[in-house]
């Protein structure tokens, strides 16, 4: 993956697109947004925004589902 981006550093242009593409590939191969955030030094929200802006369909939240009470 691209070298870690310094905390608070703005991403723009080609560098933002490159990071978004790499994050999209990693996310689609099964990595979580939290894992990607930790690896890149970006916040959860920043990684989420990059993925959405890049057109990635996000997975649903995990965990057990409760049965409906009728």
Structure, briefly:
The chain contains three helices and no strands.
Protein described:
Pfam families: HTH_58. Residues 5-66 form the Helix-turn-helix domain. This protein is mostly helical and 70 residues long. The chain has helices at residues 13-28, 33-40, 44-53. The protein contains three helices and no strands.
User: What is the radius of gyration computed over CA atoms, rounded to a whole number of angstroms?
Assistant: 14 Å
In DSSP terms (H or I, runs of 4 or more residues), the helix count works out at 3
- Give average pLDDT, whole number: 85
Overall geometry? elongated
Helix content: 40-55%
Written as H for each helix and E for each strand, in order along the chain, the element string is: HHH
The end-to-end distance, rounded to whole angstroms, is 49 Å
Strand content: under 5%
Based on helices, strands and strand pairing, what is the structural class? mainly alpha
Tell me about the largest β-sheet: none
Per-chain topology:
Elements: H1 13-28, H2 33-40, H3 44-53
List the defining traits of the structure above.
70 residues, mainly alpha, 3 helices, 0% strand
């Amino acid at each position: 993956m691209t070298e870690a981006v310094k905390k608070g550093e703005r991403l723009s242009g080609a560098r933002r697109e490159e990071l978004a593409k790499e994050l999209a590939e990693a996310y689609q191969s099964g990595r979580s947004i939290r894992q990607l955030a930790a690896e890149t030094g970006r916040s959860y929200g920043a990684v989420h925004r990059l993925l959405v802006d890049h057109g990635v369909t996000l997975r649903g939240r995990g965990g057990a589902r409760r049965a409906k009470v009728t």
